[in-house]
Write a structure and sequence with these properties.
Layout lengths: L2 H11 L8 H12 L2 H24 L6 H14 L7 H16 L24 H4 L3 H9 L3 H6 L1
Helix pairs in contact: 1-3
């Protein structure tokens, strides 16, 4: 085993030999015995592992017992008002109803032949069905009405 590979393993897996790759554990142990640089790296890894274990140990919490968990759950259910469960759904329904109410509604007229004199163009399936030329149908679709021009 090369010294570089041994340093990589110690840096990646730490000082605990049980975490080292199985196929390289024996060679790494033999390499550490005769190499002072690897022994120094192993000592530094032990210090780092101990510091990390201390930090993680500070964060560890004791799990509550089953009786404590049941007591806490019962207290949470008793203190929460019943209407609180429906608040999210009611809020979503109110937003949806508001959006529907303010959405522009399309105007629905009779067939296309009645609309030739109106100022609002409509889409027709084919200009041939109405007696309108393709140029007139295009103009009806893509020419702004006075109301649309006032918006610009």
């Amino acid at each position: 085993m090369t010294e570089d590979r041994a340093l990589e393993i110690i840096a990646a897996y730490g000082a605990d030999a049980t975490r080292w790759p199985d196929e390289e554990r024996a060679a790494l142990t033999a390499a550490i015995d005769g190499n002072p640089a690897l022994q120094d790296a192993l000592a530094e890894a032990r210090t780092t592992d101990a510091a990390i274990a201390g930090m993680l140990g500070d964060w560890a919490q004791v799990a509550p017992s089953a009786a404590d968990s049941a007591r806490l759950a019962a207290a949470a259910r008793a203190s929460a008002p019943r209407w609180n469960r429906w608040l999210g759904g009611a809020f979503a329904a109110a937003i949806a109803a508001s959006l529907i109410a303010i959405a522009p509604m399309p105007r629905l007229w009779g067939d296309a032949t009645e609309q030739q004199g109106t100022t609002s163009p409509t889409i027709v399936a084919s200009a041939d069905d109405t007696g309108i030329t393709d140029a007139q149908a295009y103009a009806m679709l893509f020419t702004l009405t006075p109301q649309e021009e006032s918006l610009i």
